[in-house]
Each structure stands twice: as C-alpha cells, then as structure tokens.
Amino acid sequence: MLPLVCAVLFVALATAVAVRHGAPLPGDTAIHTWGLGHRPPVALALARGFTATGTGVWPYVIVVAAGVIAGRGTGGRLRAVGAALAVLFAGQLVRTGLMELFARPRPNRADWASHASGYAFPSGHTTTSAVTAGLLCWALTRRTRPDLARTTCVVAVCWAVAVGATRAYLGVHWASDVLGGWLLASAWLGLCWWALARWLPPEAIGGGVSGRTGMPTARGRRTAPERENTNGTSTPDLPHHGADPHRTRPAD
User: What pTM value is reported for the model?
Assistant: First the structure.
C-alpha cells in the first residue's frame, strides 16, 4: 500500500505545482531562506560532497553491486544486474519526462551554491538516489543476514535522504521538488516490484532468501507411510528386503 499512497501524494503535489504554474508552494520560501542564512564553509563542503554522489556514475555502480548481491550464480547475477539497471534507467526517463512536462523554474540562480541544469520538479538527484537506495535495500534483504540487512538499509536510506536535503540546502531546488523526488521514487519502485513479481518467475532474478543454501525444504520431502503395531501404536513402514520379523504371521 505504501507505493500506492506515494503515487497518490505525488499526483496531488504535481497538481499543486501545475496549478500554481511552478510558483513556490507553502513552506518552500521559508526553507529556502533558512538555507541561505545557514551556510558555514564546512556545511557547504559536506553538502556538496553528498550531492555529488546522487548523480553521474555512482548510482550505477551501486545498482550494479546490488544486482551482483541479489543474483545467484553467474546467470542469475547477470539477470539481476540487468533488471536493476533497467529499473534505474527507466526511472530516469520517467523523471526527465516529468521535468519537461511541468517545466518548473528553479530558485534564483544567485542563491545557488552548486551546479544545476534543467527544470526543477521533481528533483533529479533526489529521485536517482532514492531509487538507487531502494534497489540496494532490495538486494540486501534477499541475500544477507537480517541484522546486516537492516543496518545497511538504514545507511542507504539516510544517504538518499541526505542527497535530497542537500538539493534544497544548496538552493538549487525548492523543498517541494525534493519531496516530489522521494514520492516518485517510492511509487516507481513499487510499480517495478509489482511488475517483476507478476510477469517474471522467481528464478529470473536469482530466487528469494529462502533456500539460499540450495537444499530442499522439509515441505517437499515425502514421509513414509505408517502402519499400526499390535500394541496400537504407529511406526513408519520402512522399506525392507525379505520378511519383516516384526510382522504378525497371518492365522492358518
């Protein structure tokens, strides 16, 4: 239900942006002004460092690593890498199309503390990093221990949140652009997960967490039939050769 809720919220936010013809939404100006007044050199350096990881080659490197983690065997890893890259690349196309559709202006260029290009809504860095973090979490929950998966997923989500927050802090996006990127990424990941689960067999992307040792589960094992002893108890009727010394001789 969460991706569906995010999709509905994104549609509502996009409608508000369109109705106001790209003008700042309530809260955008206040957050932008706060960022302008709180820019010490150390904070600016950290923000620029975080924001640089949300674009370029880094998201694709992380997604390839996620596919390697998620797959099983050479073929499974190749399929998982291909599927993860397809999700990220298609998400980029959807986000670019929406940016061109809404054509929302960015904040005043004089307020920028980092490089930016194109339109504002939804934020490209935010959407890309959120989709990347989601794919990494998907891979980790499939192939790693639960405690390690939880810790790493928290780190990945915090990274994506930090990348999005720096876009507003550096003055190149409105806060509603960042919120739109998070909502779009969540809805897109949910749609892709539904599509993969509906149309692709589990082995197409390496199988699930269960059965990672390759051993058959107890559910698939056939149990031996039971027979009743003379004392009223039941024991498995095991295969044997020759006469069964415990079997009662029929009466003459």
Answer: 0.78
